[in-house]
Automatic annotation (TrEMBL):
Residues 133-455 form the Aminotransferase class I/classII large domain. This is GntR family transcriptional regulator. Coiled coil: none annotated. Keywords: Aminotransferase, Pyridoxal phosphate, Transferase. InterPro entries: Aminotransferase_I/II_large (IPR004839), Class-I_PLP-dep_aminotransf (IPR050859), PyrdxlP-dep_Trfase (IPR015424), PyrdxlP-dep_Trfase_major (IPR015421), PyrdxlP-dep_Trfase_small (IPR015422). One of its GO terms (biological process) is alpha-amino acid metabolic process. Its cofactor is pyridoxal 5'-phosphate. Pfam families: Aminotran_1_2. Residues 31-51 are annotated as: Disordered. Residues 38-50 have a biased composition (Basic and acidic residues). PANTHER family: AMINOTRANSFERASE, KYNURENINE_ALPHA-AMINOADIPATE AMINOTRANSFERASE, MITOCHONDRIAL. One of its GO terms (molecular function) is pyridoxal phosphate binding.
Length: 461
């Protein structure tokens, strides 16, 4: 979006902001909802907290020296005609009247973008909502089996090994026409979107959602339409409104939401199906948390077999180093996805597929998955209870993290950083204004009280 009253060649407008960094002679300032221009600027994890400013400023057309992203410290308050502070220099922002200063004038050379922070040794790192490695099944036997599956080292681009297809089909939430193994859940989403959704179209997605899903969508250059959610999943009315913009796809988590910990109720899924009935939108179901969820898998595939793509990631239940997910859809859609894959991986390691199939057939794995689920629940509940005792109620949920409301994300992040606790700001998971932090609980086996004390301090300025 261009700044109000500004011409494309004018300088940035606003009250206060910071330069995030430099890429060659380019400055990185706010460029929300537009396609990242620099490799290091692609991921929400590596980039600084997004700016909420309505005065989004684009680089002067055709001038490669100035690609600006402005991160406001003060929220929504950029105003046309006010002074904008770039690094140490105040720049009067009379649109069109002020020549852009030279990049070298403005940027301390050592300044680099990003908001991950450099924490001291002993940091309590609650940023990664991944599985606890100690709770995952052992891989040695499974890998030995994987190394003996048929057709090893053939260049045949097979879609899925029969053992894996049989193992997942038993618990698949609908009768699917075709299956494909991919190199993890995000690889599946990335490949689907690149194969089937063109840049410039729009995609409806839950608000909030997983940071990487937003990364993939933003990188592809699609318009993101947020769909509001409650304690049962995406809201039908919000989806209906989103569908008025005729998105190419609705991408959602049909089982356990990886950020909020909400499980989609079966009645809500039915209602979403009713809303989707009147559209031809592609339905992409991303079951990223998989069998860490206590709820059974569910899908709209039984109702919309020809336009649903259902993805199950095995990373949280069997281990992220298997790099495996399985997707299903109609045969023509799977053909299209597979044909896009021939530009890159071509197929997914048959060794890893065989290993996963072996684990899925082994009752001991299911025993471990069940035990891990319980431990994740205890860790999540322990922090949620400790926060409730400190006056921060958290709705019930499951999974690997807590979505904690805060009054101000910057205040919360600074307060926690000062106590050497790393979490993610909610804005990384959202394209709308956000007042949350995402706190991983999957490995929080001790120091829960310490984390709760710090979060309570961080909650309200
Ligand atoms: C919503 C969602 N989708 C997909 C994934 C896929 O993970 P992976 O690529 O490790 O299989 C995740 C992992 O955190 C997730 O949260």
């Amino acid at each position: 979006m261009q700044a109000p009253n500004a011409t494309r060649s004018s300088w940035a407008i606003g009250t206060s902001g910071v330069i995030l960094g430099r890429h060659g002679r380019s400055l990185l300032v706010c460029r929300k909802n537009s396609r990242p221009q620099h490799p290091g600027d692609r991921s929400r994890n590596e980039r600084a907290d997004p700016c909420r400013c309505p005065a989004h400023w684009d680089a002067p057309a055709g001038d490669p020296r100035y690609r600006l992203r402005i991160a406001c410290q003060s929220g929504n308050d950029l105003r046309s005609g006010e002074t904008f502070r770039l690094g140490d220099k105040a720049v009067a922002a009379d649109p069109g009247a002020v020549a852009p200063p030279a990049a070298d004038d403005l940027l301390p050379p050592q300044f680099t973008p990003g908001s991950s922070g450099n924490y001291a040794a002993g940091v309590l790192d609650l940023t990664l909502a991944g599985p606890d490695a100690a709770l995952l099944p052992r891989l040695a036997e499974a890998m030995a089996y994987g190394a003996s599956v048929d057709d090893l080292n053939s260049y045949e681009r097979s879609r899925i090994v029969p053992e894996l297809k049989d193992a997942v089909s038993e618990r698949w939430p609908y009768e699917a026409e075709a299956f494909l193994a991919t190199n993890g859940g995000y690889n599946a989403v990335y490949t689907i979107l690149h194969a089937l959704v063109s840049s410039g179209s729009s995609v409806a997605i839950e608000h909030p959602t997983a940071m990487r899903l937003l990364d993939i969508l933003e990188d592809l250059g699609v318009k993101i339409i947020p769909v509001a959610c409650d304690g049962e999943g995406p809201l039908p009315d919000s989806l209906r409104e989103a569908l008025q913009q005729r998105p190419a796809a609705f991408l959602f988590q049909p089982r356990l939401h990886s950020v909020t910990g909400v499980t989609v109720s079966s009645s809500r899924l039915d209602q979403l199906g009713d809303v989707l009935e009147d559209s031809d939108t592609l339905i992409i179901e991303d079951d990223g948390v998989g069998d860490v969820s206590a709820a059974p898998p569910q899908s709209l595939g039984g109702r919309f077999a020809e336009r649903t793509i259902h993805i199950l990631s095995l990373s949280k239940s069997l281990g992220p180093d298997l790099r495996l997910a399985v997707l299903s859809s109609s045969a023509p859609i799977v053909d299209q996805i597979q044909s896009y894959r021939s530009f890159s991986a071509g197929w997914t390691s048959r060794i890893l597929q065989g290993a996963a199939a072996w684990l899925l057939r082994d009752p001991a794995s299911w025993q471990l998955i069940g035990e891990a689920r319980e431990i994740y629940q205890q860790r999540r509940d322990a922090l949620a209870d400790a926060l409730s005792e400190r006056g921060i109620p958290i709705p019930p949920g499951q999974g690997l993290c807590l979505w904690v409301p805060v009054v101000s994300e910057p205040f919360a992040m600074v307060t926690l950083a000062a106590r050497n606790i790393a979490v993610n700001p909610g804005s990384k998971f959202s394209v709308l204004p956000s007042s949350h932090i995402r706190v991983a609980t999957s490995t929080l086996s001790h120091r829960c009280e310490e984390a709760a004390d710090a979060i309570a301090l961080a909650h309200t300025p």
